[in-house]
């Protein structure tokens, strides 16, 4: 694949287009003159199939209330079956405006105020918000860092859940930011602990399509143990990461157990059920139908960017510990081999002039780590790597 050609033809300038990643640097970082590699979206244009479908709808000229059409269900169900082996029916699926909002809804629908909810840091920081902002008790069980490869100690997990008397576990699968694609054995271990203590599992699987090793595929929580944990599972996903459609605010809540679904429906009814986003249904449905070849190329670019970063650091900054890219399109690196962890955030922003998610956003003990978005034009990855290496040499 000619990656330079792909970037030239598919990557676009986003600065000045009202985008969070590029146009909120002053508000978030206090400095507008940074190279943004933080928000998990892409500089890559969404699939032609999605853009063409939305353009056709625009030309139609009406934007009244929409509904989820049969061809959307067919496209989404087909993608899930083909790529993940998950079979769905309309009865299993509800729609929401995003996975983060669905995390809040799940916490409120299935737990009581002051209930304990467990997460495994370092983890996507809205997990913290969904617990703390709803008045629940945050309980953490830190992943173990084995020279950049992260695992969960099941004995520690069991003890954490038992001692906290937790009601819910929020799982990130694949795990953002540490790039893990959990094996079925690992997932079954987690779920057995949760079953033992009567803990509901909410599984955020929004990065499910971003895996890179056929020998180590993503396993949906719905399939673990032959599906025997479906009665304790709320599954959240979307095509928004897969097809760079996050701004269309359209996602899925998947529930297999009838009682759990009744509880969810009752909660949504109590707050006023939102309408679906018309363009979300049109664009994402078209992407599920016609975006597969585009997606293969995007994954190839992500691997290319990761390999460039890995090779450059191995040669010129060998003390950086770069986590293996099993899943997501986010690199996770440890710079503590060069400086105290609490110095890393300032080094990345003030010295390297990069806007990145830093480790303390994902864990109370995460100082020293940096997350960089790989789903972007290679020229930005090259610039970031060069700045990091140059400034490390000046220490």
Describe it:
There is one protein chain. This protein has helices at 3-10, 20-23, 25-29, 48-60, 70-84, 99-110, 126-132, 154-164, 184-197, 258-271, 278-290, 292-316, 344-351, 378-393, and strands at residues 35-36, 93-96, 116-119, 137-140, 144-146, 149-151, 168-172, 200-204, 233-237, 251-255, 321-322, 330-334, 354-355, 357-358, 369-373. The chain has 395 residues and is α/β, with parallel strands linked by helices. It has two domains: 3-46 and 292-393, Aspartate Aminotransferase, domain 1, CATH 3.90.1150.10; 51-290, Type I PLP-dependent aspartate aminotransferase-like (Major domain) (Aspartate Aminotransferase, domain 2). A seven-stranded mixed β-sheet has the order 2-10-9-8-7-3-4, sandwiched between helices. It has a four-stranded antiparallel β-sheet with strand order 11-12-15-14, covered by helices on one side. A two-stranded parallel ribbon has the order 1-13. Helix 5 packs across helix 11 (278-290), helix 8 packs parallel to helix 9 and helix 12 packs parallel to helix 14. It is globular. The mean pLDDT is 97.
């Amino acid at each position: 694949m000619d990656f330079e050609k792909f970037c030239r033809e598919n990557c676009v300038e986003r600065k000045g287009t009202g985008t969070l990643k590029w146009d909120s640097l002053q508000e978030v970082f206090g400095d507008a003159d940074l190279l943004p590699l933080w928000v998990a979206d892409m500089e890559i244009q969404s699939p032609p199939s999605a853009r063409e479908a939305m353009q056709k709808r625009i030309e139609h000229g009406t934007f009244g209330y929409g509904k989820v059409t049969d061809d959307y269900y067919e496209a989404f169900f087909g993608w899930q079956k083909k790529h993940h082996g998950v079979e769905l029916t309309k009865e299993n699926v509800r729609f929401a405006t995003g996975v983060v909002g669905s995390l809040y809804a799940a916490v409120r629908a299935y737990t009581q105020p002051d209930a304990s909810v467990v997460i495994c840091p370092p983890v996507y920081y809205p997990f913290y918000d969904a617990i703390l902002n709803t008045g629940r008790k945050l309980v953490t069980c830190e992943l173990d860092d084995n020279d950049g490869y992260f695992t969960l100690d099941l004995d520690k997990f069991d003890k954490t859940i038992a001692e906290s008397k937790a009601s819910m576990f929020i799982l990130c699968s694949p795990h953002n930011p540490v790039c893990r694609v959990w094996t079925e054995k690992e997932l079954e271990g987690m779920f057995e602990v949760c079953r033992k203590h009567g803990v509901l599992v909410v599984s955020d699987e929004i990065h499910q399509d971003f895996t890179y090793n056929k020998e180590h595929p993503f396993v949906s929580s719905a399939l673990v143990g032959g599906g025997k944990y479906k009665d304790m599972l709320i599954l959240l996903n979307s095509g928004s990461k897969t097809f760079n459609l996050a701004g269309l605010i359209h996602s899925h809540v998947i529930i297999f157990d009838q009682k759990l679904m009744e509880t969810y429906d009752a909660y949504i009814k109590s707050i006023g059920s939102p309408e679906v986003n018309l363009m979300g249904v049109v664009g994402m449905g078209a992407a599920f139908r016609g975006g597969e070849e585009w997606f293969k190329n995007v994954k190839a670019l992500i691997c290319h960017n990761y390999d460039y970063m890995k090779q450059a650091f191995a040669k010129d900054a060998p003390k950086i510990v770069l986590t293996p890219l099993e899943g997501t399109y986010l690199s996770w690196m440890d710079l503590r081999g060069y400086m105290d962890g609490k110095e890393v955030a300032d080094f990345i922003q003030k010295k390297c002039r990069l806007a990145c998610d830093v480790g303390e956003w994902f864990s109370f003990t995460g100082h020293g780590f940096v997350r960089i978005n790989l789903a972007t034009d290679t020229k930005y990855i090259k610039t970031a790597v060069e700045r990091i290496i140059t400034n490390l040499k000046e220490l």
